[in-house]
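Dear U.,

For the methods section draft, I wanted the exact inputs and outputs in one place so we can describe them consistently. I've listed the two proteins in the order they'll appear in the manuscript figures. Please don't edit the token lines directly; just add comments below if something needs changing.

First protein:
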Amino acid sequence: MKDTLNLLLSKLRMKQLQLLIALDDQKSLHKAAGVMSMTQSAASKALQELESMLEAPLFERSKSGMIPNQLGHCVIRYARLVTTDLTALCQDVAEIRSGRGGRLAIGAIMGAIPECVVPALNQLHAGQPDLSVEVVEDTSARMLQQLDDGRLDLVIGRAAVAADPSKYHYRPLGDEPLSVVVGYGHPPLPNKEVKLRDLAGHRWVMYPSHMPLHALLEREMDLAGLQMPDNPVSTASTFVTVALLQSSHDLVSLLPSAIAGLFVRKKMLRLVPVKLKSPSQTFGIVTRKGGVLSPPAQQFIELLRVHPPQPLQTPRPPRKRLPAHTARKQKSA
């Protein structure tokens, strides 16, 4: 392993890594050479030199073109990671030289954004107003792929969903409780606990089948002895979910409680007092092992750890005022 590392460090060229990425994209040596502004013979020689260093072929030739084998996929992933990191380096250097600060790319699950990501970003921006920030909201599994590719500096999500969680550093932050919600114009709900069975007359706005919240609702329905709805509206968008709930009184949905609380406070949604049986899922800070964090990423993580998310306080309905004469009677009694 040490000999291979020394050989790569002494002979590996960025042009070879860029060629691997072009081959993965184009599936053709001729097309990849064109993208790289190289002759086909020069591209072929560069690939052979890299395969010789690794002592194994990286591609298989098929009717559909040059397809990476298992080793090829591994090397290409790291090639993308290195080129992405170098691109980010050049970008950061240029921005720092120009006095515009650096760049930070964060991935976050939906439920972590209001109570966790937003407060930390506000504090970070207060000290670094010229910092460029990108926030990606997606499932943990998809964001971990972007973390692997170097497109994200860190993820606020779950490392356990990865095929190999040991690749990451994971620092737990908090839980992501869920709430059942309807539009604010929905008829008044009873104060007592509502069962999922009581919502049988409603249509569900659900998440696509690849998302964890879909599996959780499926589990809740199963525990309640119910079938999944036959005629749901499926969307991964919070905005679409809220807009649909507001437009119709017969729709109901499941949202992270932190997100639901935002819209409840703005009188756009109402909480349905359904007690879910599934435990809240924990989320945390996920970073790559062996990766070097930029100063903005380190500061952002420190802010998250110093000021962890606070549990959501479910809004209480306003207390009814008693007529003056009734209040006086109760006081005198």
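Second protein (the one for the lower panel):
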Amino acid sequence: MSQLSLEQIATQLESPNSRDRLLALASLREVPAEDAVPLIKKVLDDEMLPVRSMAVFALGVKQTEECYPILVKLLETDPDYGIRADAAGALGYLADARAFEPLVRAFYEDTEWLVRFSAAVSLGNLQDIRAKEVLLEALNTQEAVIQQAAIAALGEIRATDAVDKILNFVDSPDWLIRQRLAEALGNLKTQKSISALKFLSKDAHPQVSQAATLSLQRLEASA
């Protein structure tokens, strides 16, 4: 399939068929950000949620100065929680330190777990150590997916002094939590991490044991 011109993509974004609009957004993958973002903005208010969702994600990948304020506004004001979650995720892709405060606000103030989950993941993507206290609080939630995100994010920001807290999940009945723990410990080099990884490498769930083995290998290679 030959690459579409900008004019053809712009025309396709105005198609009454939502599939055409999705394909047009996908066609922007190879287009420079400064040319892609004005076209992406045209469908941010699309009537079809999948089109809006894809457009929001695209703003996190096609990075210009316009993207950050647009994504923050969507995160803070959009009535659809799925779009707010998408905006939180896209802010993590932007890797802009300014996103720290909006993401923290979203974690504390949004009532939807999906938005809070995306905010926690993105706080890890920012790799900002200031997120440590928020993520430690997230461990105390009743929602397993948020606990998973917080454990992974604490590993991403390399919060070595949080090892004792996340090791409380080493016997979690949720294998995904144990897997995230095994992955996170690979970024947190302490003797306790190594001991826990040896324990998790014998986990009954293969994805947990594999993650622990890989993390152990990574820590040993960094010795």
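Candidate sentences for the figure legend, describing the second protein: Residues 162-223 form a domain with the Leucine-rich Repeat Variant fold (CATH 1.25.10). Residues 146 and 159 are 17 Å apart (CA to CA).

Thanks,
Y.
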